[in-house]
Amino acid sequence: MKDVQQRGKFALFVDGVKLHATAKALGFDVDYKKLLEQFNSRGTLLRAFYYITVMEDLEYCPVRPLVDWLDYNGYTVVTKTIREFVDDIGRRRIKANMDIDLVVDAMDMAAYVDEVVLISGEANFRPLVAALQRRGIRVTIVSTAASEPPMVSDELRRQADEFVDLADLQAKLVRKTSAVRPDRPEHPAMPAERRRSPARPGIHVTGAPDSIPEAE
Fold it and tell me: How far is it, in rounded angstroms, from Cα 126 to Cα 130?
């Protein structure tokens, strides 16, 4: 990685579902404390966004402990409710896409950063990457081409200024589980609205408990 002076100010955008799927494809669980520390070393991290969908009709939300920990430890968490609907021919469908939320936030941050780091391999983000580059912003994509099939789209990888394969970071980001894991406490349903953490003067991370679940 280049030094801090060369990197300048940047923002981190984490597609939570895609990061979880990518890590699972590589056979490990992500330690989110280590993830933030890894990219914080690239330069001046202004904001780290984490996007995740939640169920509307569940009495208990299994990702609530993770979301709460992220909220208190340096991430700006953005959530959206998974909604069911019936299409024109009567089939039940699920709508749970946060691409627009991420795109809007990235464009909002464009005036304040020199670089955007996007943790996702979705081809849908190629126009966003191109739009940021036209504004003189460097874009780094984090995903993997080491899985079968690759989790990163070829067109997104080609568009990016830099591609970082998550497989190369696995040893630094793997979450070590304790031999004995405590029972997970039950939590009330997570509020189904867009949540943002309050602005923080800086990024400070404390240890995350081993019992934090991954985003399913």
Answer: 6
Determine the 3-state secondary structure of 44 from DSSP. strand
DSSP reduced 3-state for 194: coil
Residues 93-142: tens digit of each pLDDT: 666 678 999 999 999 999 999 999 999 999 999 999 999 999 999 999 99
Question: For domain 4-173, which architecture applies?
Answer: 3-Layer(aba) Sandwich (3.40)
Tens-place pLDDT, residues 65-96: 888 899 999 999 998 877 766 767 777 766 66
pTM (2 decimals)? 0.75
Residue 27 Rama label (left phi>0; alpha psi -120 to 50; beta): left
Local structure of residue 36 (DSSP, 8 states)? H
Residue 46 has phi, psi (to 5 degrees) of -80, -40
